[in-house]
């Protein structure tokens, strides 16, 4: 018998926490003809995106735009500022924090990892990575570093693998309270443009972000937002760097160009995205994501399932991680939901594989697309025979009206 969904119709529900659904307005902007990236017309586009993206990061300092995924910008942050053997203090909030640490090790840096697991007795099955960064632990470690060997503190603003945010400003305060000169590097790949991020006000030296999350663009662009101290650090940093070198890019950016070929059509999309975000107003954008997150969490609570983030002050406005009951394979559930309802949910990553799924509430969404996601998950769980306390759909609807 043919599956009811063997010919999906209507739009696919892309509810993973990035790449996020791209608004038609951005898709149309990207369909413009590709132009000469060394011609006069291009410089206008270059200047427009460079000045616009600074407003999104809330910085007056340079922002580097790479035709690369976020991983490239992680590498760029490290190799522009550090030297082989330098110590970096990293904080394991989840899968992406641990991937960044593995990369730092591969690059020849000495990494120290704080955080990690804090088992939760009250859960039916112990879960990992449920908390954000502990700024006090960072401050204590920096105070003990009397030789000042730690060169950078690296944290993830919004852990996309779990749906847990971290208080970036508290980490800057911790570094300052310890009187430590370490650079502060922040991965805001999934935070930027969905959760408040204030590069200059929070004293971040290097931020890393990507196009495919809050900016609502396809994958393919990543960013480093810099501070004057970060640029200063490039003078003494000796890790090998060529393509990623900030200085050459900053120099050519002054006229609106790049040293190598930029991804022109994604830049058209970026210009449109910045216009959309700024004309809505960033505070409104953030409030909209908070509201969506609260509705999805109301649904999860009504189902009676645990939310991966154990600290409600740190709930992500971007995604919600949901723990499946013991014995229920979260990946089998995701496959069933995808097959039957053409709805993609985020998989559990690393240690959480098979134990949780992630519901994205970012990108080109609205109240009704989110209700549809909640309904798809609820029906899928019913089909999988999972016993639920109540209706998440009703709870989410009640949140919206
Ligand atoms: C927080 C975070 N850091 C890093 C990455 C890696 O970025 P990319 O997959 O674009 O290389 C991701 C990707 O989802 C992410 O969410």
Please provide a written account of the structure.
By secondary structure, the protein is of the alpha/beta class. The chain folds into two domains: 13-21 and 281-400, Aspartate Aminotransferase, domain 1, CATH 3.90.1150; 24-279, 3-Layer(aba) Sandwich (Aspartate Aminotransferase, domain 2). Helix content is 40%, strand content 15%. β3, α4 and β4 form a beta-alpha-beta unit. α2 packs across α9 (264-280), α9 (264-280) crosses α10 (282-303) and α10 packs parallel to α12 (367-383). It is globular and about 60 Å long. The two termini are 41 Å apart. Pyridoxal-5'-phosphate binds at residues 18, 69-71, 96, 156, 160, 187, 189-190, 210, 219. Residues 18, 69-71, 96, 156, 160, 187, 189-190, 210, 219 line the site of pyridoxal-5'-phosphate.
Shape: globular
CATH architecture of the largest domain: 3-Layer(aba) Sandwich
The count of DSSP E runs of length 2 or more, i.e. the number of strands, is 13
- Can you tell me the CATH class of the largest domain? Alpha Beta
Total separate domains? 2
Task: Output the structural class.
Answer: alpha/beta
- Intertermini distance: 41 Å
CATH names the topology of the largest domain as Aspartate Aminotransferase, domain 2
Strand content: 5-15%
Stretches with pLDDT under 50, minimum 5 residues: none
What order do the SSEs take from the amino end to the carboxyl end, as H and E? EHHEHEHEHEEEHEEEHHHHEHEEHH
Radius of gyration: 21 Å
User: What level of helicity do the residues show?
Assistant: 25-40%
Number of helices: 13
């Amino acid at each position: 018998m043919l599956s009811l969904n063997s010919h999906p119709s209507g739009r696919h529900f892309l509810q993973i926490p990035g790449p996020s659904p791209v608004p038609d307005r951005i898709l149309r902007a990207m369909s413009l003809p590709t132009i000469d990236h060394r011609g006069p017309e291009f410089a206008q586009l270059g200047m427009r995106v460079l000045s616009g993206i600074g407003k999104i990061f809330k910085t007056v300092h340079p922002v580097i735009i790479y035709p690369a995924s976020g991983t490239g910008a992680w590498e760029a942050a490290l190799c522009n500022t550090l030297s082989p053997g330098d110590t970096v203090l990293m904080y394991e909030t989840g899968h992406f924090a641990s991937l960044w640490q593995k990369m730092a090790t591969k690059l020849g840096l000495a990494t120290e990892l704080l955080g990690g697991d804090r088992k939760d007795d009250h859960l039916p099955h112990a879960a990992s990575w449920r908390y954000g960064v502990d700024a006090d632990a960072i401050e204590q470690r920096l105070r003990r570093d009397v030789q000042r060997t730690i060169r950078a503190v690296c944290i993830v603003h919004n852990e996309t693998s779990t749906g847990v945010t971290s208080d970036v400003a508290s980490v800057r305060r911790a570094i300052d309270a310890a009187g430590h000169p370490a650079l502060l590097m922040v991965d805001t790949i999934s935070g930027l443009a969905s959760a408040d991020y204030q590069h200059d006000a929070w004293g971040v030296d290097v931020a890393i972000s990507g196009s495919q999350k809050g900016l609502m663009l396809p994958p393919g662009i990543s960013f480093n937002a810099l501070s004057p101290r970060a640029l200063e650090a490039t003078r003494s940093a000796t890790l090998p760097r060529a393509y990623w070198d900030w200085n050459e890019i900053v120099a050519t950016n002054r006229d609106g160009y790049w040293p190598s070929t930029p991804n022109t059509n994604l830049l058209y999309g970026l210009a449109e995205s910045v216009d959309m975000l700024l004309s809505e107003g960033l505070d409104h954008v953030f409030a909209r994501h908070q509201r969506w997150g609260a509705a999805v969490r109301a649904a999860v609570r009504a189902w009676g399932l645990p939310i991966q983030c154990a600290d409600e002050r740190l709930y992500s406005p971007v995604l919600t991680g949901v723990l499946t009951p013991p014995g229920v394979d979260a990946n089998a559930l995701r496959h069933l939901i995808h097959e039957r309802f053409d709805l993609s949910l985020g998989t559990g990553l690393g240690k959480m594989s098979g134990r949780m799924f992630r519901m994205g509430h970012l990108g080109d969404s609205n109240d009704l697309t989110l209700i549809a996601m909640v309904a798809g998950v609820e029906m899928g769980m019913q089909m999988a025979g999972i016993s639920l306390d109540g209706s998440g759909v009703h709870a989410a609807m009640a949140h919206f009206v």
